[in-house]
Amino acid sequence: MRILVIEDQPELRRLLYAMLDEEGYAVDLAADGEEGRAKATTWSYDAIVLDLMLPKLDGWKLLGQLRETHKVPVLILSARDGLDDRVRGLDLGADDYLAKPFERSELMARLRALIRRSAGQSSSSLRIGNITIDLRARQACVGDELVSLTAREFGLLEYLAVHRGKVISRREIYEHLFDELDDPASNIVDVYISYLRRKLGTELIETRRGQGYVIS
């Protein structure tokens, strides 16, 4: 899953990157509202973490502009913790609002919930045949055996699983699982598909020639 963090404080921006990267998300960063708008309208994101007090274009205006054309889940992360601010943010189209300072576990839980709801998935556990996927713990088991997956391998499994039955193109997988520093011309998607098949079984992920991949 790919997250855009729009935050002007360098230390907090780096901290959020480290937290999300450790959880296995692909992360893009923006230091002001204009940069955030440019990235949000160029790339496909599974969620946006948005500060309000941004230079060049504040978070209120940016949120309003995004909601004219984009349905991506937005979590406001702001030091403005008053009731009026929270109500205004939600009324403008934010999907959630978390005040600073925050606990890492709560931020991650809220993001997981936003992404699940956006994909039409209410449960944090998925079962496909004899494979169980725990989205909260970010673990997968074949039968009763825990399978060791890297953060990126799990991210790919998660994306295909929550969109079960939908054929996902290589381009869409790339846009949602790899950040702006990865090379879109490489065969990186195919490589990670092969890793998952090796660990979870060759029948889990079906290739649709000329279309992409699907978990049925």
Explain this structure to me?
This protein is an alpha/beta fold. It has two domains: 118 residues, Rossmann fold; 91 residues, Arc Repressor Mutant, subunit A (Orthogonal Bundle), CATH 1.10.10. The longest helix is centred in the middle third of the chain and has 15 residues. The radius of gyration is 18 Å and the shape is globular. The two termini are 20 Å apart.
Question: How would you summarize this macromolecular structure in one to three sentences?
Answer:
The chain folds into two domains: 2-119, Response regulator (Rossmann fold, 3-Layer(aba) Sandwich); 125-215, Arc Repressor Mutant, subunit A. The chain has eight helices and eleven strands. The chain has helices spanning 10-22, 33-40, 59-67, 83-92, 104-118, 151-162, 170-177, 188-200; strands at 2-6, 26-30, 47-50, 74-78, 96-99, 125-128, 131-134, 139-142, 145-147, 206-208, 212-214.
CATH class annotation of the largest domain: Alpha Beta
Using the coordinates shown, work out and report the CATH topology of the largest domain.
Rossmann fold
Helices and strands, in order, run as EHEHEHEHEHEEEEHHHEE
Strand content: 15-25%
Mean pLDDT reading: 90
When the domains are counted, the total is 2
Q: Roughly how much helix do the residues carry, as a percent range? A: 40-55%
Strand tally is 11
Q: What would you call the shape?
A: globular
Strand order within the widest beta sheet: 2-1-3-4-5
- CATH architect. name of the largest domain: 3-Layer(aba) Sandwich
